[in-house]
Amino acid sequence: MNIVLLSGGSGKRLWPLSNDIRSKQFIKIFKLEDGRYESMVQRVYRQIRNVDSGARITVATSKTQVSAIHNQLGDGVGISVEPCRRDTFPAIVLATAYLHDVQGIDPEEGVVVCPVDPYVDESYFAMLKTLGQQAEKGEANLVLMGIEPTYPSEKYGYIIPENKDIISKVSTFKEKPDIKTAETYIAQGALWNGGVFAYKMSYMLEKAHELIDFTDYQDLFAKYETLTPISFDYAVAEKESRIQVIRYGGQWKDLGTWNTLTESMEESAIGEAVLNEKCENVHVLNELGIPILCMGLHDVIVSASPEGILVSDKIQSSYIKPFVDKIDQQIMFAEKSWGSFRVLDVEDESLTIKVTLNAGHSMNYHSHKNRDEVWVVVSGRGRTIVDGMEQVVHTGEVITMQAGCRHTILADTELKLIEVQLGKEISVHDKRKYPLEQ
Amino acid sequence: MNIVLLSGGSGKRLWPLSNDIRSKQFIKIFKLEDGRYESMVQRVYRQIRNVDSGARITVATSKTQVSAIHNQLGDGVGISVEPCRRDTFPAIVLATAYLHDVQGIDPEEGVVVCPVDPYVDESYFAMLKTLGQQAEKGEANLVLMGIEPTYPSEKYGYIIPENKDIISKVSTFKEKPDIKTAETYIAQGALWNGGVFAYKMSYMLEKAHELIDFTDYQDLFAKYETLTPISFDYAVAEKESRIQVIRYGGQWKDLGTWNTLTESMEESAIGEAVLNEKCENVHVLNELGIPILCMGLHDVIVSASPEGILVSDKIQSSYIKPFVDKIDQQIMFAEKSWGSFRVLDVEDESLTIKVTLNAGHSMNYHSHKNRDEVWVVVSGRGRTIVDGMEQVVHTGEVITMQAGCRHTILADTELKLIEVQLGKEISVHDKRKYPLEQ
Which has the closest alpha carbon to B92: B199, B215, B172, B240? Predict the structure, then answer.
């Protein structure tokens, strides 16, 4: 199957583990049998591969997530990069054009679109395959997944099917209702709209050319910023009459808040933590390398990362967003395509960070206008290139770089270094990239 | 007045702000009018100076606290260093011998002994002066302070005075009782024993020579390890018949647990913190440089330092000790006589720390057998001496030191540096000191 995973924006509702550059789908929170942890995006990717080892997976996302996706899913995954955010319709058109024009997929093939972060079992992905196959049959232009509601939720839109068959025509769509209205919808046999649907590629390309003036993927990518933001539901789904829904009654959870997320944790703590026997319904997620001791707490989430620390009543944690918006914390940790970095110390005119490069990876070849840098290699082997001069480096090596000099480091093994940045105007934007002169 | 402040051992009950090397009296927790904070020992020192600007203050303490005391009180304070812990009687004898033999104080002068960490107002120290003057009069050999009880506490010993006068002879001492017994003591007019007393120096020296075989301060210091640990109450006070008590009815608090300590905090938070409007009776002490967000908590203390994070119900926080005993965390922060250091990053074969030297101070001249070191000066000016070679250094300077080389740095202004330690067996014990060859 062809599957497009929509990887959404910066979530602050899982602060401090999510932030402006790390979305919730990249937090490693689900324990594997070997004791390691995987993120939501890794879990979904693994589940799809288990159900359909030949699935062609494309992640539709913004530039800011590309590094994290490569870091977590490897270099094999297809990525349709949105130059900027223009809501779901342009994003789906861009991904479809990418499949057609870049990957050369037959336009008669089906495509399934799905958010990157549902907490589900594998039967969900088996159902996605069915959705794609149903779309290829051509009985309808769009085939939606309808999730059987477990309670009258105000958080989701509803799909009213014409009948109670597994596959039914869609009668109508309903916006997020209040609880009373939700109850009446459910009495009518309504299903939750989880944002999952399938179509034949040729259908979507036709719709795209109707609504957007473009020739091919390259052209669309180039003019992406000029497009009007519009949702897929509004632009297409609500206006389409040849539309079916397939009902899904398996596990499906939306882990969008600390409260729902911790319900799916197998243990009370990830990371270093001690909970005394008077703690009840307490969950700790600790990404700081220091212990957290909890005593006598009830219904509390404690979450700590280099960005900050949250201590919240579980119900209250749903109201986190305005408080996090007020916190003005610089980015303290980031995953990059080549590894990761963490800020260790901040002074007025210096910044000390720890850089971890994965084996075989390297930074961009770059320079800074307003800062000198010092690298101290603390583990691993690699090569530096400074102003064109290559040098083999290993643990203990010290490299000093004046402002303006071009530099990079290539890791032959996993390589860790302490970088001290020195200057009056230290900024992540003070960076100029160059092609590597090799 | 001559005052000896007993500065006690490593408290784990205020973890993570106190630890094996930082006792609770050094935590900066009390807000000054200028917005800065002072520690318990700084507060007491300042209060004594306000009441008696000529007071001769001596801190009796262990070697491990000397750096922190000089850092917080300056170099002017007298320190009687106990080579090891031998309980209060040997400690008081050592401090008294120090006053007599090192400082040359007239043996007819009074000495007041007082713990370093009572939370009191200045009337308390005015009373200490009265205690010393009363001891000099010679009506009694020992003059105790008796604190008027505010509730029947199980935590304190009691003094039963002969009558209710301000100054009375002591009838008898009582060990820490249960609540019922405490009530009967209080009905008899009993006072709390806060461990405060005064004596004429000649009296204590006489007692000391009766019980310990020594000639003078130097001799006592040299044989200190061979002494039998014994408390002052048991060795002297309970056997003394010429003993008076002066009653004190002013403010007096023992801030030994998070629960009692936070009651004396003027604000709900020290350090970066946001508390939402649903928080009630929540206190945050944050020594990490990252924000803490609290939501919907009741009666909770959150305390964070480079050593770890405590999140506890306030009542439960009294039972912290056994849990902290189980946490095996290396020292992550320490005050030294020359400034402070903080651990930034720990790897198997490297350790990165940030060192802050106060202006005019320097480290010991020292070497390490098993590690190389790299210094990157991130602010300030000073001079390094490496294997006898002096060099002026300033922001941006990088100094590399091989294992075995002798080195130090002298700060001309406040000076901050990042130190990367590299080696297979990094240990604080791998240090050899040398006299400076200047």
Answer: B199
